[in-house]
């Protein structure tokens, strides 16, 4: 395919607010154009209008809007569009039905069972995309060696695409299915998503359904086996639903777009950008590959224009827009992820790793409890910032305007109600003056005397800019350091309308010394479309070890997939010299879930490798880079084979920078505010810049679509390509006093959290166990000199108070003087010995039966890891009757070393902070951050006390609930309204129990911090300060403060939930949630499995409880059905909601779950549960939720009630049926009004900012353990 000549070529990015057009003219010149994406008074479609304007202006001919455009002058059109993204955000896709294997109708509603926001009691989650569900009678299972099921032979055996054998237990009943499908069509639903178990390797049943549905008249049929043939039913299901939901909308848009051209664009090469950064023909553009169509163009744009393969200096893409900022990385290859969320929907498809954070020009500014807060709420395009003159709130844009960094004289007059006025400096300053007054009043009333008693308007505005910059630096650090890269060694490529104002400050903070801003930075997404390749991908699942006897089979599959890609690209007009192939293997160490998509291009093939590359070397190199170690004796598995074929156009920009013999002259000189105060700042127009002359900061460069700030100490030059390159000077030393500065408080809060996050990255990278490396069941934290918690990442509820108690015990241990710990890490070691594998016995009665016990143990002495001593301690439980030492010493030792490495990293980072600001300053701000959390809790208690006093005249609240054995958990709270303090008195709570539901004091404190954070209702630092206004009284030798050797494993996972229930009951916050983690484990001498299962959430004032979700002190993800059946001797017969188990009321409680496990071999089953007798309470007249039930269906037909806690030997053919509790209802049912929750939830989804990308996924995964 050759570059078109003598015609007009267009690359168009249709965004949510603006549409950007890049046009290459017949004479080689280039034009850019920006217009509103939605302007129905003037035109119907923005891309069509952009093409029309360019043709009309360049040819001098008239092209009337009401007539189809002549295509004879058009060579090609390439487009990126947010049509799919917007339809997903607004839930405006096609009416869709889901067809799924029977027993799994609610699978996508349950999803991973984790809630998205730990402290959101309402559990706001996006609704599923389908409107109806059809359960189809069909079932295939993977054949397992040694399966002992006493059942009839399968109807037939089949071989999957991976070579694995499957048993067809139930054939597809097409006759019955046809009746159901006709009924769906009759109800006006014509789009169908098909999701059958194990169809990723055996799609025959799905294909039969597809043929039937198309014959009946469904206009869109999406099969999960075709959309993305990868293991894991849940993300594949979400993906196929998105495809069925969005593709008709895309098709409808394309029909409208093509109808505006003569002949419907039949003779024009029209390509659309996909989420993976590759172009595809218009007719193949589909919903599941379209959600990042717009941003992907920007990544291609900066990657092609900013990366220099000669120097191999990696680039960070920094795209700051109005609502959010996109951050990505390029180092010679596009970085893809294969599973990510967009608008609350998990998509399993190749996507560029674009990390979106809530800090844009329109991000709102808040001052809360002494902290400067930026976002995540945004002013949007309407009403926009205050300066837009439409009654909007203060934003980052207003802060830049107030500091003189945005110049109204260089903006068009398009603001105000009539859209004919300039930006309003006056309105912005008036609002900032009011905010400054409020801040100064707060500081004078609530904080200790400061060296400078009041802040100026400029200091307030500058403070918000600094906080916004720090918020944008955190994901850049995480994105680079997560994979072992040094952030400072990158170039910052800045584009988007707002990025130029922040680029120098961001680069300086991160230690980068170069910023690149392309000449088309304002329309770089459109320009990137012109530079992108046409991509054809093929992928298929695999189940082979990567070893010599598998190379020939892998090569055969690779050759077949490559041939398919090449044939398609050849048919599209490319010659062989323009086509390249890149082969990837999705590889992991056997027994782990941490798979990497590995390219062999960097490791040439040899006689002992596949023909397309040495993938084992590539895999181990990348594994070592990202995780810090390899596992040489562990076999490597190949899960998927992927081939990416690219057809390259060879198009490059011919525009060069202007040369001249004189330095450019400023258009004007203005005054801008910086750290040094107001400085004279020269203002230059981009078109006046010439190559070879530097511009010293401070300066402002005005481009047509953006404003670039060159800060003091920086120097800007125009490159020969016409781009701006800024050399960033080092940060000048900062001298701070120990007095409180509200801006620095916000920045230190970000810094301390960043340290904890970076510790977590080191721990995850260097650990080896599944619990820590893959489930991310750990916490890292920074502590003050008194051992008090300062910052903690992530916020795993049950860790919140426990880490502080542990650290303070070490710090103030007899014989230890002064602070010892500044950082600490906590990890879940899967086995530390005891009476059962996994160290979570249902019937333990002493601490020793639960494994190794460490009170105070020095792990590293004078830099030496005490391996023998810690080994002895881990094996010590073997001395007790019936107990074993640790069953996985290798993983224990490896993970402990990883924790030491994480602590070392934290200590290093705290040390760097001390080097920059001084020990006294760092320790002072540790205290101030704790005080800030304390203030937020005091404000909440004062507010509650005022309302309570008005309603009842009393400042005391109390509540009581019971464990299943009748043990009471009793609480009485006395609140001091003036101080905003409270006494939480648990006197009257039951005695320590003979069993393992005893909860150490730290567990109660964790539950209390969690409840306080939920009741505060806003994002606050979670640290020691939360408990400063609280006095906690716990009777000794009670279930909440047991003796030293009491069994406690159930207290952590069960009693903690009951403590939360009692606190929320006392404060009348919401009805009880399921109050249980439903701990289930099974195994044999060779292997074991552990899971916790969701239930119903409690209803509250204004919301129904969420069904099938984890609540309060846990948030674990559950194993995907296909992974479960592939790796363990079990068949998942049912995983669905338990209808009617939620308590009724004005707002009803969420339903629990039914989960049925059929065992294929002999196993030992252990169950550790609660709420089997005591029902989750309703509130204010709402009914109680249903209790849980644990049933065992024996193969001989008997049904046994197992009770709440048991261990039992199971035979093949036995089935465990778990019925989890529902949540309590809220309010009397007769008070129920018209239910508007669904619409309000969707509205909330649209208004709330939605983060995305690998950094967000990592943080969310950490909070789902």
Automatic annotation (TrEMBL):
Domain Hydantoinase/oxoprolinase N-terminal, chain residue ranges per copy: 10-216
Molecular function per GO: 5-oxoprolinase (ATP-hydrolyzing) activity
Domain spans labelled Hydantoinase A/oxoprolinase: 236-537
Residues in coiled coil: none
Gene Ontology CC entries for this record: cytosol
Acetophenone carboxylase-like C-terminal domain mapped to chain residues: 549-718
Region of interest: Disordered: 1213-1242
Residue ranges occupied by any Hydantoinase B/oxoprolinase domain in the UniProt entry: 811-1228
Superkingdom in the source lineage: Eukaryota
InterPro entries linked to this entry: ACX-like_C, Hydant_A_N, Hydantoinase_A, Hydantoinase_B, Oxoprolinase-like
One Pfam family cited in the UniProt record for this chain: Hydantoinase_B
Signal peptide coordinates: none
BP GO annotations: glutathione metabolic process
Ranges annotated as biased composition (Basic and acidic residues): 1227-1236
Protein family according to the UniProt entry: Belongs to the oxoprolinase family.
Protein name (record): 5-oxoprolinase, ATP-hydrolysing
